[in-house]
Amino acid sequence: MEDCIFCKIINKQIPSEIIYEDDEIIAFKDIQPVAPVHVLVVPKKHISSVMDLKEEDKALIGKIYSVIQKLAVELGVEKEGFRVVTNCGENAGQTVKHIHFHILGGKKLALTM
Ligand code: 5GP
Ligand code: ZN
User: Which of 22, 23, 38, 86 fits as disulfide partner to 33, beta carbons 3.0 to 4.6 Å?
Assistant: First the structure.
């Protein structure tokens, strides 16, 4: 989708530190990390938010969690633990309107609200 920063990363129009890629999913390091490990796992299909997921996206979301599991091991956070975050909408502070899953870890994470 035009003017979507993550679509541009997916199409390699904007550089990023890609750590995983297949035909449906990409994962890259967050440009402004808030934890020692901060990776974004993103479906290549442009879906704006959780509220735009459709029945047909079920398998894709399942695959995203398989990728998250694999990356957690590669990033070395699988034993100490990590957080998976998807912000949806304004109150959650979603800034990029292309659904994504933050993997956060590498330190004890506070639960701030
Ligand atoms: P949100 O606030 O929508 O849940 O998360 C968007 C995330 O995307 C933020 O953590 C932000 O730092 C990251 N981000 C925004 N633009 C870019 C970019 O151009 N490259 C990378 N690697 N991350 C980005
Ligand atoms: Zn997009």
Answer: 38
